[in-house]
Amino acid sequence: MKKVYIGFIAALSISILLFGCSSKEKEMKEDVNLGFDQAKKVEVSSVNHPDVVLNTIDKQQDINTFINKLKVDKWNVAEIPADAKKENVYKMYQEGTVKLGESSNKGKKDLKQVATVTTYKGIPYIDVEIKDLNLNLKVPNDVSEYLSSRGHQEQ
């Protein structure tokens, strides 16, 4: 009889542990945004001419629309095909962090580049580089098409 009770308690403990882990995983997946929602400016350049800015997104409403169309929660880690050709580079900028002992810089718009997204021609893959972290990701086809079209728009 003791073995039945111990088995029941062990099964119950494992069930609670697994349910807790799965809910954490869901919360983490929902919270993945890579900090893009804090962007204040996005510059689009061609890989062939990285110094020439093709498009600048700097109005907050346009930035919010851009971030929403990225569908970050649908990105998956994947290997980029060897024959892939880079197309556009999106540089994302945020306001600098005010550190302890520094005065607030609300009047200044000192923007720092925090992330780079590189797209590939004709395939739904991107590279995301944030600080020392470099991720190869597969994105939905509509996100890939949207990013490709933003690179060809002139403002």
Q: Calculate Rg over CA atoms.
A: 21 Å
Binned, the helix content reads: 25-40%
Give the low-pLDDT segments.
23-32
| Percent in strands | 25-35%
Arithmetic mean pLDDT:
78
* Largest sheet composition: 7 strands, antiparallel
Element string (H = helix, E = strand)? HEEHEEEEEH
Order of strands in the sheet with most strands: 2-1-4-5-6-7-3
Structure write-up:
With 155 residues, this protein is an alpha+beta fold. It is 34% helix and 29% strand. The chain is built from 3 helices and 7 strands. It has helices at residues 2-31, 60-70, 141-152; strands at 41-46, 53-57, 76-77, 86-95, 111-120, 125-130, 133-138. Strands 2-1-4-5-6-7-3 form a 7-stranded antiparallel beta sheet. The longest helix has 30 residues, at 2-31. Residues 23-32 have low confidence and may be disordered.
Please outline what is shown here.
The chain has helices at 2-31, 60-70, 141-152; strands at residues 41-46, 53-57, 76-77, 86-95, 111-120, 125-130, 133-138. It has 155 residues and is of the alpha+beta class. The radius of gyration is 21 Å and the shape is extended.
Label this structure with key terms.
155 residues; 34% helix; 7 strands; alpha+beta; 29% strand; 3 helices; 7-stranded antiparallel sheet
Task: Note the topology.
Elements: H1 2-31, E1 41-46, E2 53-57, H2 60-70, E3 76-77, E4 86-95, E5 111-120, E6 125-130, E7 133-138, H3 141-152
Antiparallel strand pairs: 1-2, 1-4, 3-7, 4-5, 5-6, 6-7
